[in-house]
Design a protein that fits this description.
The strands form two sheets. The chain has a five-stranded antiparallel beta sheet, with helices on both faces. It has a five-stranded mixed beta sheet with strand order 6-7-8-10-9, with helices on one face. A hairpin with a 5-residue loop joins strand 9 and strand 10. The chain is an alpha+beta fold. The N terminus is likely disordered. The radius of gyration is 33 Å and the shape is elongated.
Length: 385
């Protein structure tokens, strides 16, 4: 066995530097792969070539004593397919993972820890195994078998592969971190789409349903009413397509605050006894399109809740563009409610608004009581574009 502090005994400084340059280039090539599995495959491949070995493999532990990945270089896919199974972390492979130390053997079969090979496995004689680790964190293990020139693995080979392992640990850690970030981004995107669907599309569908229900109850169906509803439905279908394809338009910044919020309010169809008023500056928003789109979604949710539940005569949307904040108030003179006894769906809508505001550095406050109306305030820090 050797350790990573040893250096090739028969190599000059010039040769060592050349080796280091070759190793760095090889691992950089591996790290440029797009997935963790491709990174592992490339590390096995470049390690095999560095010491002129016939076979190489890289195993990644699963944290339960077995292997999550086992990538092979030097065997064809057909040869791999004929194996009964890939290694599972027993024998010499398990010894390297357990001891966290390099192993160099001229004849594997003579070692008491060897578990042998499964049927159809190519004959292999010599072994060089090196753990890939940083401190106590084990990222994987490199296994090299049989040099092409028939010679046993040398101490220089051990130094080369241990040096590769040091670089490889960083490459694997970076790839794992990248995959975790991608999974997190996917979860965040799913949550965003879920909020958008609830706050935008679902509310629009509800508004159309309310309009149709009012028409049905009143018995007063105007000739142009159905085409208008169909047009609105087509708009919602287009919204759904944009959400799914992540192609939602970002053109809100081209309109003033009043125009943008007016567009949102115009989509609500209220009974004759209810009126929605808008008091907003006819000025451009000081926000990125993404932030102002989120503000619009919050206003849409707040007005929708008031239309559905408040039984109010007046719903007033007021906007105050202050020096440091944009403050939007949605107030009604309706029945109010007990915030501690919200339905699941209404509670979800309020949580969506609070989460959306928090993502942009703001907050949402609600002031209500039974028979005293409701006042919801959205406050978002202004941005300088």
């Amino acid at each position: 066995m050797t350790n990573s502090d040893e250096r090739p005994q028969n190599s000059s400084t010039h040769v060592i530097l050349a080796h280091l340059k070759e190793i760095a280039s090889a691992v950089m090539y591996a790290a440029e792969a797009t997935t963790l599995e491709q990174v592992l495959e490339r590390i096995a491949e470049v390690s095999k070539d560095l010491v002129n070995a016939k076979y190489a493999a890289l195993g990644v532990p699963d944290g339960k004593g077995g292997l999550r990945f086992f990538k092979i270089s030097g065997m064809t896919p057909e040869q791999v397919a004929r194996l009964d199974h890939l290694p599972v972390g027993n024998g010499l492979i398990g010894a390297i993972m357990d001891d966290r130390a390099s192993i160099r053997l001229d004849h594997m079969a003579d070692d008491s820890r060897s578990a042998g090979f499964c049927p159809a496995h190519p004959a292999m004689t010599s072994l060089l195994g090196v753990p890939i680790q940083v401190g106590q964190q084990l990222f994987g293990t490199l296994y090299l078998c049989d040099r092409r020139d028939g010679q046993p693995f040398s101490e220089d080979d051990v130094w080369l592969i241990e040096t590769v392992a040091g670089y490889a640990a960083l490459a694997i850690a970076g790839s794992q971190l990248n995959e975790q970030q991608q999974r997190l981004s996917l979860l965040e995107e799913r949550e965003r789409i879920g909020m958008d669907l609830h706050d935008g599309v679902i509310q629009s569908l509800y508004a159309m349903g309310m309009r149709l229900d009012l028409m049905r109850l009143s018995g007063d169906i105007q000739p142009d009413a159905i085409p208008n509803v169909i047009d609105n439905l087509n708009e919602v279908i287009e919204d759904i397509r944009r959400y799914i394809m992540n192609l939602q338009r970002r053109d809100a910044y081209q309109k003033t605050i009043r125009e943008s919020l007016g567009d949102i309010i115009s989509k609500f169809h209220t009974p004759d006894s209810m009126k929605i008023e808008l008091d907003a500056p006819d000025l451009p928003p000081r926000f990125t399109p993404t932030t102002f789109e989120a503000i619009g979604q919050m206003v849409n949710e707040a007005v929708s809740n008031a239309v559905r539940h408040s039984e109010a005569k007046i719903i007033r949307v007021s906007v105050d563009r202050q020096e440091r904040d944009l403050v939007i108030t949605v107030a009604d003179n309706g029945t109010g409610f007990d915030p501690d006894h919200l339905s699941h769906q209404d509670g979800l809508g309020l949580r969506n608004m609070q989460q959306r505001a928090a993502l942009h550095g703001g907050h949402v406050e609600i002031d209500t009581a039974l028979n005293e109306g409701t006042r919801l305030t959205i406050q978002i820090p202004a941005q300088t574009l």
